[in-house]
Amino acid sequence: MARAATPAVAALVAAGVEHEVLRYQHDPRSTSFGEEAVAELATKVGVSADQILKTLVIALPSGLAVTVLPVPAKLSLKAAAAALGAPRATMAEPAAAQRSSGYVVGGISPLGQRKPLPTVVDESALQWDRVLCSAGKRGWDVALAPQDLVRLTEAVVAHIRA
After folding, report:
1. Which residues of 35-74 are buried (b: 16+ CB within 10 A; e: fewer)?
2. Please, are residues 162 and 81 in contact by the beta-carbon 8 Å criterion?
3. How confident is the model at residue 1 (pLDDT cuts 50, 70, 90)?
4. What does DSSP say about strands 53-60 and 140-144: parallel, antiparallel, or unpaired?
5. How far is CA 76 from CA 27, 43, 151, in A?
6. Cα gap 53→37, rounded to integer Å
7. Sequential DSSP letters for 8-30
8. At 151, phi and psi to the nearest 5?
9. Rounded to whole angstroms, how far apart are CA atoms 75 and 81?
10. Torsions phi, psi of 149, nearest 5?
11. Which end of the chain is more exposed for a tag (fewer CB within 10 A), N or C?
12. pTM of the full predicted structure?
């Protein structure tokens, strides 16, 4: 059997989850990774920008956690902390997010992380039959059912948009 391209894809294959890897040409000068994914994939694949999810790593008093929400949405740190039972949250340092996840910023997937972290997925993801999130590499997304994303990440589902 061929080795999966990323740990995120390997996790999906190992779990037997139906998915589709979608690739686009990542511009190395781009630092707006979510917006780039929306620009490249929304019309090409025929999905709403709200179906394309971004993965943001946050810092809680107890350690790091993962949030997953639509690219166009702004994260409410207060709501994310509350959903995870923490008094507060801040954005994690990029180096800490990379070390913990095993992925580079702009390619952090909620799936197949080096160290599984508490995860919260915005409730809006469940309105779609499929969502897209990073496949673990810049320029790679994976389409899957939101219920599979929640199950594989053992996420709580909550309203975490500002």
Report:
1. ebbbbbbbeebebebbbbbbbbbbbbeeebbbbbbbbebe
2. no
3. very low
4. unpaired
5. 28, 28, 23
6. 9
7. HHHHHHHHT---EEEE----TT-
8. -65, -45
9. 11
10. -60, -45
11. N
12. 0.94
Strands 53-60 and 90-91 turn out to be antiparallel
Is pLDDT above 70 for 2? Answer: no
pLDDT tens readout for residues 117-135: 999 999 999 999 999 999 9
Residues 6 or more apart whose CB falls under 8 angstroms from that of 5 comprise 21, 135, 136, 137, 140
Euclidean distance between CA atoms 134 and 78, whole angstroms:
24
Long-range CB pairs of 82-88, under 8 A, 24+ apart, other chains included: 82/158, 83/120, 83/156, 83/158, 83/160, 84/60, 84/118, 84/120, 84/156, 86/60, 86/61, 86/62, 87/61, 88/60, 88/61
Give the separation between CA 118 and CA 156, rounded to whole angstroms: 8
Share of the chain above pLDDT 70, in %: 98
Give the largest CA-CA distance in the chain. 45
